[in-house]
Amino acid sequence: MRLAIAVLWMLHWMPVPVLAVLGRVLGTLGYLLARERRRVGLINLRLCFPQLSPLARRQIILRHCQHLVQSILEYGVVWWASPTRLRRLVTLKNVHYLHEQAQHNTIVLYPHFVAFELCALRLNLDQRLVSVYSNQKNPVLNAQIYQGRNRFDNAKIVSRQEGLRSIIKAMRDHTPFLYLPDQDFGPRDSVFVKFFAEDAATITGLSRIAGLAKAKVVPAVARRVGFRYELEFFPAWENFPSDDLEADTRRMNAFIEQQVLEQPEQYFWLHKRFKTRPQGQPRFY
After folding, report:
1. Whole-model pTM?
2. How far apart are CA 182 and CA 202, in angstroms?
């Protein structure tokens, strides 16, 4: 792992177009070799986009693998690039929607797109953030990721084991909570709502935390645009949370669907999004 981190450190000096070429080559190789992950991605696309041909779905997963490997190569940029370079690489679009909520507790709904790490760090240059961190099994990698996410000493990183108290306390100090709730975390605290054409176990945390903290929800989406990046913010949601937890959770999925349709190859398809099934339904993976 130390060797891999050293390689990433060397790569961070490379221009992004060079990393993009490497990402295409290594991503294509990964697509061919990582048979099980490729299968997971193709199942996800079949469930979400049954109208697409098998060839179209394979093309999306191939391009996704290329984007994903490029994002791994960009971790060197995330961990060691200068603030000047980060500002040059990442454009903050409509960030006034976040600033307008400065006097409120705020949750930034932040779906899993491939550029999420780089764009979040760029935002952290200007904006203190609180986020949840899952410890990695490898201690060297764990320490590097933790250090990288807090390299500007402008973030509060909360372990999943700490619970909500630390998050809500940080929000009450006018620190937005960067929240990525769009994966399958199992049946606990989840409801089954549609994600595209299929029922997906979706955690209800966005609605519950917003209610507990009396917080505004400001969605944001990270994009790779050519050889640069864009973090776009959207207006704070009105009438959220409602008194219908399931409707709130479906509203979140509907927003993510809209963004996926704009850049399907950049969404995290290799995660087993439909792993948890309603009782009596067969497994997909």
Report:
1. 0.94
2. 7
